[in-house]
Amino acid sequence: MHEGGCDCRGIRYRFRSDPIVVHCCHCRWCQRETGSAFALNAVIEADRVEILAGTPERIDTPSASGRGQPIFRCPECKVALWSHYGSAAEKAKFVRVGTFDNPDALPPDVHIFTASKQPWVSLPKDARVFDVFYSEEDAVAIYGQDGINRWRSLLQAET
To answer: For tag attachment on the chain, is the N or C end more exposed, with fewer CB atoms within 10 Å?
Structure first.
């Protein structure tokens, strides 16, 4: 099981399964939001994340889509824990890999929006790399059959 939380340990969480996919996003929005070269997010169904301690606060931030993006942070230390994005909305959590107790266990499955990647960031030769986002056909190869089934089920689920 993957567990994690914020710096002050006021928020703790546990995954009930492995994530569907781990994205390394190099878009300018993620760079600005994190103050770094990219954001590393483990994507999982929201109902597979168990909150062990605390209640994160929702902060709505601007996004490229214009719809805004909710980021959930510890109300004390303000560490960003997860967000909700796009068509999955609140059915999926995009959990910041750096908040896991063992972030080494969740390397990226795919690098996205690399057209805006910082030029000094080098990607592994065998990495899956996309200038923007990947297609649904590519998703099958990235997620594996179980992962793509989970993702499709999540999108079809009622909120």
So the answer is: C
